[in-house]
Each structure stands twice: as structure tokens, then as C-alpha cells.
Amino acid sequence: MKQNKLKPWIFWPRAIADISSGIYTFLHWPKSLSSRVEAPVKIADDFFGINIANSSDERSDQYVLDQVAQLGLKQVRLDYTYDSFGGNAERLLDKTLAQGFHVLLDIFPSFEDAQLMGQDSSADKRWHAFAEEVFKTYSQGPHQQQIVYEIGNTPNRGKWSGFSSRGYIHAWSIISPLFDQYDVRLAGPNISDFEPLANISYLRAMKRISKVPPIHTTNLFVERVVEPEANDHRVLGHRARDWLRLNLVKKARAIDAIGKELGCEETYCTYKCWTIRRLKRWFDDPEQKQADYLMRYMVLAATSGSLNRVYWGPLVCSRDGVIDCGAEGYPDIDNVTHYREIRGEFDDFRVRPVFKALKQAQHLLAGATCIQAVHSQDGIHHFVFVNQAQQEFHISWCRDGYSMPLSLIYPSDLRADDEISFTNVLGETIVETPTHITQQPLVIHFDSIHPRWRPDANQLAGLPDMTVLDIPAEQRQYLPFNNSNWCGALAVNEGNSLDETLAALLPEALETAPVDRLIRDKRNKVWNITTATNGPLTIKLNRAVGGKRLSYRFLPSKGKRHWDNAAAMLRAGINTPQPVAYFEQHKLAGIEPNYYVTEFLDGAFSARDVFTSINKGDADCQGLSHEYLLELLGQFVCRMHDAGIIHRDLSSGNILLTQQGDSATPYLIDIGRAKLKQTLSNRERLIDVMRIVYKLDWPDREKLVGYYEANHGQLLKGWRQAAKYYEFKQRSKKKLKSKLKAKKRK
Fold first, then answer.
1. Are 150 and 105 in contact (CB under 8 A)?
2. Last residue of a domain, one of 319, 348, 365
3. Whether the Cβ atoms of residue 634 and residue 706 lie closer than 8 Å to each other
4. Residues 403 and 316 in one domain
5. Which domain holds residue 584?
């Protein structure tokens, strides 16, 4: 084996050369690597694995191994460092091997020694002695074929692992003479996230010193782009997102291509999860969303043809485990780098829905062959598989918020019977034949191979753009609508037919129905009616006037923007009146009259009413204390922002409140200008805060923002300056308007 001593003075010139070469290679990838699954793809029996950890409570050892077996998995990954010998980790490792599981053993120095690697000879010696003891103990004997050794942990995340770039390569060089001596199978370098230049530079340096590991390991996270199908905008920005098309499939191919070019035989993703903490920001049911995303990720990863194995994140952890340990907080070192131990009490462990989703993924996909795959960035995702028993099954879903009638894809006589069955992402049988494909993966099982039921790939790829239909609601169905005059969507309540609902909700009916109350009729018109099918409703007719007739030509209609924003807000747990319908013209929808219809909020009052009551010196508003209402509004605006929503027109009249006894519930209205992002900057938060505090005096502004900051967990910097700016802007506009009116009177 070739062995090159690492020379400090030559490390960085070579690293710079490696990175430069990697940039050149990267710029040619968009043309050479596809972002689409190319069937057929055979999925390995051992494709799925999971990370496990020990606990001070020895009862958890067998519990962990029983749960892994319950999932149907044989592949586990375990972190191992200096204090593992003679400790809980060694105890768990020995039991894991004894019960026949295969282990990816991630060995690494302590955080302190990783920081000293290459700078302190005693740290170097401790690392060599530890690695040799591990190899000597486990690479010889009855279990030697069950272990692959992953060397190091997230070297591109020095704050977590302690490694510098040179420190990691030095650690590799220290123990490289041991690799052939003990005939160990190697994996590495465990790069976190999608950072291909890091993969290139580390693998090339490892190759120069001794050899590249046969197994190239990485952690292909997509959590910060939220959906597993999304093109990643973080590489070269939003503008290059759709040019690069770096979705999960293309990322996997890029990482695998790097490894293959440098001599690696296989590619493993060693850690992947969505954390409950992050999902709570965007979704009202984060545990169900975690299960949905696991299945969607695993289908894409398994059919990419570029990954040989994916290890899900921690088995047991409160923040991101498939089993909740019940513990508060999170370890100082991220589990991605060192899943040290299970925290929490054994009796508090709770299986999450994502556990069932992983079990379903293993049961369906391991050993199966994908024979057809169609997936669109903004459309349907549909995969056809044949399992080892020669039974066909289909897995299909839409992107978040969308829904597609099953009748657009399958014949109308597709029904659950002795030959066909339906299950959800958790493996539960769906008794009634589903009517729609939604963001939650749907599995259709056939008793044998059935080409008759298989949708044509070209037909799937040519389906029209979908309408946002996945809106949280009970006892109603959301359907797309299209006739010669209008297109859009509407809600059909249980017990009503589509024809009855259309007769009450089409624009012609809305315009001629008796008006309960006319709220506004200027640029836009807002009024209330009562229908037999959907009860009391609020209708907004949007008209484009002046310069907006030009700008709105390039935007979706305001009716559609209201509808889409309402759907996203409700999925995130942010209240807005329940959408009932939107209608727009087929052409130039943004500048032609368009309609948005919601349920009427009976007895609602606005934040403007609250602020007026405060400014008048009333004792309370609607029998509710001013202090309570300011706290409620501050918390609500903060929760909206934490969910990634900027209203962009958050006047006090655009928050309505409904009262229930001695409490109230806030709702956002006039949401057509709202924008949805993953996270908001401080500046973006100020766009709303300076507007909502405008009608208050300074002491009450301080109170409302104080409640916002308490919910936010940090200070909202610059809000006073933003409020003063908005105050000046409004005064200036009023003066200008009054001058223009005076000129007109003359």
C-alpha cells in the first residue's frame, strides 16, 4: 500500500488545486447528470439502515435491537470514540453483533483531540492507539464480516467534530498503515450536506496518502429546501435553481460520480432526517409530515440508482428520532456528528408515525425493481415497482399543497377488491377507494403484474398544472373547476353535489345573490351572502386598475394568490377564514375580474377595533382585557413569521378576532400580497411589525413588540426605527393626498 506522510507546508496548495479542479468539474455537471429517475432500477435488499445509540439504562439495548428488527432492518450505524471501550457503547455493539446485525462503525477521536490533530503528538498517539485497539478487537474473530469502519465524522463541520480540513487528513494518514495490516473494509469521509467540492478535495487527499475508501459516505440533507423533491437554491442562489436542477436525484448522482471517478465502489448516505422542531415552523401536524417526507425521500433516493444505502437518522431522539425519547433540549454536539447516547427515561419512549413509514418503505422497496418513474418539479410523482414476489405496486404523491384526482391517472373502474388494495404512508389499509392523490404518498397494490392499470408515462408527464387543493378541512372535498368561462377550485361540502355547489358559487350566482352586507366597493369589492350549500360567505371581487393592469399581466390572479396563500397558512396552523372557492379567467387572469370566496366569520372584530378601544381609554374590548389582546396579537404575528409567512399588508384591519368566552382566536385576511419563505430575516419581520403597531401609541407598541420578542426568543432589532419610518411615510402620503384634493377643488 502506498503511504505518503502528510507534509503541512504542501497541504494547502494541493487542497486549493483539488478545489479548483472540483469547481471546473461542477460547472459541467448540469449538462451531464440527469435530475430524473431513469428506470429500470433494482433496489438492494440491504438498502435501508438506521443510526442507533446506547443508554445508561441497559434495558434500552434490547429495546433498540428489537425495534430495529421490527422495522425489518439488518443494517445499523453506531458512533464509537475514546470513551466507548468499557462503556455503554461497547456493550451495545457487542449485543448488536451477537444478534447478527451488520454495523457501520463510525470511529473518531474526541472533540478535543480532533482539534489538536497534527499539532500535538500525544493527541496523534491516542488516536492511533484507539484505532488499533478497535481494529484488533473487532476485525478478527467471528464478527469481522459484519463491520465496515467509517473513519471520522463530518470533517467539513469543525464546530461539531473538532476537525480542521488538514486535521482530518492528518488523522487519516496516522492510521492508514493499519488498514491493510488488519484488512478492514473502510468508509469515509462522512461529508455533511451537499458540498461536492469538500468530497472531491478530501477523497483526493486520502488517495494521495494511502487509498480512497471503497465506500464513499456523505449525508445528503435536503431539509433546508423543505421538500425532498425540491431543486436546491443554496448552491448558486434562487436564480440558478431551475438551471442547475439540483434535486435529490441529481445530488446523489453527483456525489456518486465523484466517488466512482476517484476509485470508490459504493456510495452511502449515512444520516438523514427532518427534525420535528423545524417542521413545527411550517406545518400543523409535524409528525405526519415527517412520515410523508421519509417515504418521499426514500423512494427518490432508492430509485436514483446512485446510492447503495441510506441510513435514516437516530432511532430514538426527541427532536428527530423515529422514536421520541421524551427528553427536553438537544445535545451540545449535533447527532449528525456524534449520536452519543439516548437521552430521556426508558418508560417515556414513544413510537412516532415516521417509524411506521420507515417500516413501510423497507417492506415495499427493499429488493424491488422500479420499472417506470415519472416525476415533475411541480407535478405528479408516480413510480411503478415490481417486488420479488412478482407483484406490482405503485407509489404516487404530489408536491405539498397540491392534489390530483385519481380519475386523471387511472381508469374509472379502479376499485379496492380482491386483486387491488390501497395503503397509506404508514402501511394502513385504506378501505374506501381514494379519490385524490395528495402530498401523502399513496400505495396501490396489485396481486400480480398488471400493465392494464399502469398509467402511460407520456400521459403522466403531460398532465396539466395542478391546483392547490390540499387544504385542511373536515367533511368537505376540494375540487378543481374548469368550464368555458372560468377556471379555479371550490369546496364541496359533505351531502352536497358538485352541480348544486356550482349553482351557488359560480361568479354569475355570486353577483346575483341577495347581499347580506356590502363591506367595500372601490378598487375591489367585498360583500357577504348566504348560500344553501356553503352557508354564509364572504366574497372578494378583485379588479386591476391603473398601472396594475400592466404588472398583474405577469402574476397569478389575486383570487388564486389568496387561495394558495390560505392553503399554505392553514397547513402551517396559521388561521385565515376557510377558503371556499376561487374563479379566474382562462387568459390574462391577473387583470380580468377574479373572485375569492371564504367562509364568513360570524361576530368577528378586528385588531383595529382593539387599538381604537385602547386609544379611547376603554376598560376593555369586547369584555377582553387590552393586555390579553396585545399579548395574543404579538404571539400570533410572531407565530406567523416563524412559519415563514410575511403578510406584507398587515394593517390592524387585516387581523380579525373571534371570541369564545374569555378568549379570542385571530385570523389573517386580505392575504393576496403575502409571501411564504422557509425562514424570515429580521428585516422581513419588520415589514409586518411596523404596520401592525402603527395605530398604537409608543407605550402600547412597546408592549405588543415585547410579547412578540418573548415568543420569538430574541430581540427584534430596529423595530423602533422601522415604526418611525412607517409613521413618516404615512404622514407624507396623507399630506400629498390632501394637497392633490385641494388642487382638484380649485
1. yes
2. 365
3. yes
4. no
5. 476-599
